[in-house]
Write a structure and sequence with these properties.
The complex is a heterodimer of chains A (333) and B (672). Chain A has 333 residues and is mostly helical. Helix content of chain A is 77%, strand content 0%. Chain B folds into two domains: 55-277, Orthogonal Bundle (MetI-like fold); 297-381 and 392-555, 3-Layer(aba) Sandwich (Rossmann fold), CATH 3.40.50. Chain B has an eight-stranded mixed beta sheet, sandwiched between helices. A three-stranded antiparallel beta sheet of chain B has the order 2-1-4.
Chain lengths: 333, 672
Amino acid sequence: MTIKYVFDRTIQLVLVIFIAMTVNFILPRVIPGDPVEAFLRSKMATSGGTVTFDIAKVGEEYRRKFGFDKPIWLQYAHYWNDVIHLELGVSLIHFPSKVSDQILNALPWTMGLLTASVIIAFVAGSVAGALLAWPQTPTWFTAALSPVMLLSTVPAFLLAIIMLWVFAADLRWFPGGGGFSSTHILRWNLASVRNIMYHAILPAGALVLSSLGGWALGMRALAISVLGEDYIMFAEAKGLPSRRIFLWYGMRNAMLPQVTALALTLGSVISGTVLVEAMFGYPGIGSLLFNAIATKDYFVIQGIVLMLILSLGSALFVIDMVYPLLDPRIRYN
Amino acid sequence: MTHFFRRFPGFIVGSVILLGTLLFSVLAPLVTDTSLEAVASAPPSLAPSGLYLLGTDAQGRDMLSVLALSIVPTLKIGVIAGLVGICIGLTLGLLSGFFGGPLDAMVILVADSLMTVPSIAILIIISTKVEDVSVELMGLIVALLAWMGPTRTIRAQVLSSRERAYTAVARANGSSELAVLFREVLPNLLPFVAASFVSSVSGAILASVGLEALGLGAQNVHTLGNTIYWARRYSAVLRGQWWWYGPPILVISLIFIALFLLSASLDQIANPAMTRQAARKRRKKQGGGDLSISSDAPSAIINTDTVVSVRDLRVVFKTNRGTTGAAVDGVSFSLNRGECMGLVGESGCGKTTLAMAMMSLIRPPGQITSGGVFLGTLEGSGSAHNPISSNKRWAEQNILELDEHHMRRIRLKGISLVPQAAMNSLNPVMRVHDQIADAINAHQHKTSRIGLKTMIEEALTSVGLPVTVANRFPHQLSGGMKQRVAMCIATVLRPQLIIADEPTSALDVVMQRQVMLTLRKVQKHLNAAMILIGHDMGFIAQASDSIGVLYAGQLVERGPTAAVLEAPRHPYTHLLSESLPGLDARKPLSGIPGLPPELFNLPSGCRFHPRCPYAFDRCITETPAMQLIGTFRYVACHLYPKHSSLPVRPANKPDAAGDMKHTINFATSATH
């Protein structure tokens, strides 16, 4: 892994983030519709409908405050200035709470749920997929795995609804939402951790079950092509035990494209998590986004999108850095 | 047609499900009254009962009608997005893949950047801003992020077909670039386009249902996602009103399953290798004692010097259509210690199959149906080296009947393989010393680390490699070095028999000689027997002590190298050695007229008779058996033992030399 490799990847990261952020800036301004207008109208609707002020004037004031009246290039400059200082504006609804505060409160919940479910689903799915491709896997395993694979065609958030119905409403084994019990005070102790885990099982379960099949199928295809390679045949000719060939000659080589697949689908993994959180009312970015959409809290939405772009870009960068450790052909180029 | 359906059941099931849902959405409104105003007058939140088969929602709408009405808009969104995505994907993919350059770079950069943005984010922003979202607009919005997948797939396919032979041929024929694009590249893209379309539709429906569930979907239209949104808004889940959200989820899942099955089978159509692999996976247990050995199968003289004896080995292959063909048909021979037998024959005559069969590495659709391989013990070589059991005498143990566990112990230690293309035979992610240590540890447990290191270093030195190679990865070595590493692995445990399957075919001529010399040196040092497989007669003649000639899966001649090549007895061998261009005499190149027979359409009697200039009537009806015609000379031909050597080749005249009854005209003998 050379300095040039790291440098190249860093430049790529910066370039891609730049383009994505510019798109994030341009897109809302290009599409017709004014957030301030919509916001004012909704405020009026909820306050009984009596108009005691000049809407246009109030609108003007809001626009000046939020910089919508300046020329576009100046807005762009301010946009980047704000981004660098991580100044994401204030929430329209929960005025004057800052957007960055709201996001920082919600972030740990999402990170926990996301990393746990992705790791479990990716590892379990990949191993299951490789076993599906291995000729010596017992048939009961293949049979037992098929219903799980079928589940993977159901989108995560719909699976979430089903699980809510079955496990929360019907059987009442698990709570129907939230990150922790409303009567529980969060502290750094075991009781809190258990409470959080208890509430996280259903959302995590929905995420894991819906993505397991996808990982397994992808890995199965990769493992099938790896198992047809000459070095597998030579490994058998060496008289190596099956397990060793499966792990060190088969899976080890099939993991490489599988990790690439993880990098490519991280975007949709995040989307799935956001929707599942919204279904469960889990206090992460997902619920934040859901509520912001429902109340048309424009800056919160934009701030969350920004943060998602940045985190996805960084995650891809990290995977790019990890890849040479897995594949010596890239390491010693 | 039925053949297609049997091979791709997913396609049928998927289509049936989709058509079923569409049918439901068309038929159900005929049964119930579907105008929304009419049904909205029903009592709200009713569980399923008589009049309302799927109950009603909180606003009194009959859920069955709502379900039926919501299917088409959802599918419509998916199809619109899929079509738009495919159009953009085809255009961009074709242009960028074919013309490359800055256009390609830009397309990839934009696609990559858009991939960095979580799609849901962009979609949410757009949906928040647009006021009146219609179904068509929804489709377009979702398509915005659906074009990247098809673009990349199509671009990748275009890039690979650019390099393929058929486009090169088209260009050489003078077609313009654009013509090549349309006539050669485009038709081969069709299966990929179809597969991309289906997955685009699937992704689009997923995204649109997600947006709708968040409340951002098309307004004033019933879609499956909208129904779920309203169910959530009215807390139907927690109130247990399953009839509200359950059926939409079920239908969505069915649609996704159908689309998944369709795209999986389209993938299989586009890439037929996938189905073949699945067939290969159904592996049956090898061995089992039903390997019958014919008692009058000729084999060589059995003495204490014999290292391996192959008796009447038969390997058949089954096709999908049920026909079987024997790739190796009744081969018998034996090898002594230190002997190197060259196994020659044309491509496809069964050489590699024979080698694999000897190591019991035949996988379905191939199967060893009869025959035996018997290993001897290496007495006096310093180690009691019977990997099976010290009690059994070698003549009684057919290793093909052993179970996998015991067979594994024999591989590499009893019989080892030097593979053909070592570049592909070494694990790319493991260092050389790990791969050698692997082999050692699998057979000798608990070797100390120092012992291991010494063994590896000795092994590397014996094949002429510097010790530093041990720490390298395979891709850091040259072709010749990789071949030597493979040789090193094959000889590190001092096997009795080394099977070298064209070990030098992938190397240049100078390397070939060096590697072959090293291999011979190691073999002599181990006093092991060797089978050297190849089709370069001249090369094999130099390297081997005896020769076996294989034709269409049968051994036709066997004997010491010099004798066989100077005075071949079998017509095929004679023609083979005649076809080798000599350095001294200049004569026109001669080959052997005709082609080797098809495995599933073998000639009757002697398999060589259609191409044999000596063929007579007995050759058509009776398969010649291998017979001993001299000291260690075997031949399978009806000319013997009547003749003592090959007669002068008859022309198309009836006065052939010798006592042959009649000569069949060569042209009429090919009656197949």
